[in-house]
Each structure stands twice: as structure tokens, then as C-alpha cells.
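Reading group handout, session on sequence-to-structure problems. Before we discuss, look at one worked example. The prompt was deliberately terse, the way you'd type it at a terminal:

> structure Blue (Type 1) copper domain protein

The input record follows.
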Amino acid sequence: MIILENVPRIYSRIIIIGIFALVVLFNIDQSYAEEYTISIPYGAFNPELNTPAEVWYDPPELIVQVGDTVTWTNDDREGHTVTSGDGAGRFDWMGSKNLGESDGIFDSKRFMPEESWSYTFEEAGSFNYFCVIHPWMEGIVFVEPSIPDYPHDATGKPVEFPILLITPDNSVEINFSWEPKIIKTHEKVNFIYRFYDATTDQPLRKLQYDIAIIQNGIELYRDKNAVSQAGGDYRQWIFEEPGSVLIKFRDIRSFGKVAETNIDLSGSSVARLGDFSAVVYENTEKIKTVDEIVQPRQTVQFYYEIAVAIIVVPAIMLLIVVIFMKNKGPQTPINQGGRKSSPI
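And the output record:
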């Protein structure tokens, strides 16, 4: 540490910690990237049907994620290129001037047998490529967005559940989370939240509020005058498009009594608000869903109907039995042979 010998010890430590943090962050960022290899097999130079090569690039189709690196190795006996764009196809190049067209995204230039060339994909999409020397050689790489394995907000910053937020007027604390932690299209997500007194840290068991779900600047859902149940609540949604999401709470205010105790949120509710953000990723495994969204009011109505059925149905059955017994009346003894019947 010669370069730090004239620097005060505390500053030296700060510099060392900073360098260590940068190294750790760099390694974490790199640890998510994968490396893939595509072979240019022997015989790829020959467009004939009886060529030893079954495909021109092996594999001819590859799925990777943003940040992954693909390396092409030349296992053939002639030089080749890996050039982004559309090739001529196996037969179209014959007797024509169609030798493929590059789109300029990447180009390996010519590399010889036993040599290789690599490219790191930084954007999502599908990338066709071909060999400008042998334009019948074609392949494609599908690049999917990189999906983290941890929850984060719309800026990519990792979050820990529950997320704690205190309203600007310092009166209410909102605890917020979602499940599953990674939100994907065509999958049901539960946004779960609870309200607390920001001063006493006691749960606020009954509040009225407005909530909205906004994605890519478009409002998908709004519930005005919602009422929290036992201090906590939830909302369900199924997103059809990827993109950033904003969940907005507005106009949080008192609503009635609980256990004979008034919830007192004095003052204007204009500054009693909170915003939470997340990201929805494209689901490569599902293109639609059969799940149904059930919001809290629908759940309450469902349990209410069950309760009504439990109480009303037995009552109706009992009433029918009573009416039947009443109409039936007492049985008259049967008189056989003109003699009065008498008990034995």
C-alpha cells in the first residue's frame, strides 16, 4: 500500500472499502451472465444435400438472456463469418445476386478453422445471422430480458418485504409487499398491505382510502372509498403486458369505530398518500391465463352468501317440516267390526 502511506488512516480505509465494494458489485453483476457456444460443423461450407453437416450452425436456434455471451467456434475446414441479418437460404443464392443482407448489428469478419469469435447480447430481441462467404448458412439467437431472482422496484433497486413507507404527514405507515416476488405476465399477483399508526406503531384496523394500479402510464384498476379489513387488505391483478407498475394510495382517512375506539386521523387527508413501484416481466412459458381475479369485496360477498345459505336453508327446511306436521294432524284410530277400539 505504498500509494496510501501518506494518506490519513481513516481515508485509506474508506478508499479500500470503496474499492472492495466496486469489486463485489462487479462480480455480482457478472455472476448472472451465462456463456454459450455454437459450433460451425465440418461440411458447413458445402450447400449440397449430402454434406456431412446436418445444420450450418449447431445449434441453429439458441435462446439466451440479456447480458449473455455467445461464442462461435469454427470446426469446419474453411473460413466463415457470423454476420447479423438475413441470409440467402439454401437455394435462393443459386443463379441470383441474393447473397444475403447485413443489418449492421454485429459482424465477426472472417475467422479461420480452429478459431472462434464471441458476442455479448445487450438488448432483447431475435437476431438472425448468416455467413457472407457462404450465404446459405443461417442461424438465429433469441435474446430474452434478464429477470432478477429478487423483488425490486421500477428502477431495479432491490427491496425487502414488507416495504415500509410513512405518509408525508407522518401519520400512517404502510407495509407493502407482493406475491409472487417476481411478477410475470399472465400470472396472478397479490398486492398485500397493512396500515399502522406511524407514532405508536399500532395497527390501524379500519381505514378508508383510494387505490389505483397503473402500468406504463395507463390506469388499469381503481377502487375509490375502499375500506381496510382488520388492518390489512389486498388487491389481485393479472398483467397482460410487461413494463413498470405503480400502485398508488390516496386520501387515507378514518372510517367508523372498531372495538368502541375511534380511529382519529385529524387534519386533511390530502398528504396522506403513498406510492409503490414494481416491474412486470414477459412470461415465456404462458401466453394466457384461466385464473380469475377476486377482490376483497367479492370475497366478503362470497362469505356473506355462504352465511345466508347456512342460516336460511335450514330455517326453510324446518318451516316446511312444521307446516307438514300441522297439516297432517292427529291420527283417528281405525274401527274394525263395529267395535270400539281400546288400548290394551
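Points for discussion. First: The first helix runs from residue 9 to 31. Second: The domain at 163-293 is CATH 2.60.40.1930 (Immunoglobulin-like).
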